[in-house]
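Hi team,

Filling in the usual template for the complex we talked about on Friday. All components are listed, including any nucleic acid strands or ligand strings, so the model treats them as one assembly.

SUBMITTER: L.P.
PURPOSE: interface mapping
COMPONENTS: two
RESIDUES: 373
SEQUENCES:
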Amino acid sequence: MRVEEVIKAIQDKFGLEVESPYPRRLRVRIPAEGKSEEERRQMLRDLLQYAKEIGFQHMSFITCVDFIKDGRFELNYGLWSYTIPTMLVVKYDLDRENPKHITVVDIWKPAKTWEQEVHEMFGVEFDGNPRSFEPYVLEDWDSIPPLRKDFDPVQYLKEHPMQGAGYDPLPYVNLVEKNLEQPTVEETGGDEGADS
Amino acid sequence: MVEWLKLVDKARSRSIWMLMYCTGCGAMELPPAMTSRFDMERFGIMPMATPRQADVILVTGYVTKKTLKRIIYAYEQMPAPKWVVSHGSCPINGGVYWDSHATVNRLDLFLPVDLYVAGCMPRAEANMKMFTELMDMIAKGEARGWEEYVKNRDYYKENQRKLFGYDLVFTDGRSAL
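RESULT (copied from the run log):
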């Protein structure tokens, strides 16, 4: 199967827009509007199953991005094909306040580990994957998931002084805040928070 | 008797076996020190796979909370005399990872460090200087960190308990050390 045929097949079967930002990369977003949660989950599972059938052999990753201003998590399912050869990324938006989702382990076995990692780093619950609730790399973790944008590492180190000892973070925090001022809307032309 | 111990120290300084347990990125600078250009084996320094046969443990980079547990286990399995070398800026004060949720900023609160090598990361020349310096210290009997660890056991154990939230215990139920 060629890349053009993959794009056309997904558009015909699911009615989804497939964009190809640069060679060997395809991106599909499951639309957030106009559908119930159940329908969107079913569409994601159908799409991942269909991609497996048309020649994507390898699930490379499941990652999560925290868009805290929009109040959503974006899950990225990366599928690689050795024959086409192309990476297909399926994007799925989750509610940030109540991040509950379903597992895709029965379709893609590597998802067992990826979902475990996303659960530990972002707190997304994958219903149906019992291993996702086990700790992945962190031991004895006692705070909110560390890769969420509202996790404050400096505050965490203040609460764990043995771990943060040896560095008085305050002058450096001031320095960092001074250097990292948010650009104004005039400077960016209103493009901030552009989609990845 | 004193002369005899001096001879033993001299002999120890010429046969340092280092534990092949490397954390972080500083381990990348050890292969140049091992291979033909710098050739650390001419000093009798040799990598060793097990802690029970090793003399020196190199902490080559950032120390995460999870790794520190393994480092302490490995260190306590090593037979005395034993030495700890802190390699790079991360074990000194956290380095570029000073505000990470995972790393521990200061190593010397939890283990007695004999020698520091600064740099991010130290080049192979700095490594060779570190090895010769360590040999000198051992030959003169100055590197006594392992004695400090026994003398100040309460201090180190208290710090480890505060960090991890519990006592480190070996899997067979023995208390560490």
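MY TAKE: DSSP finds seven helices and seven strands in chain A. Strands of chain A lie at 18-19, 25-29, 58-67, 72-80, 87-95, 100-102, 125-127.

Thanks, L.
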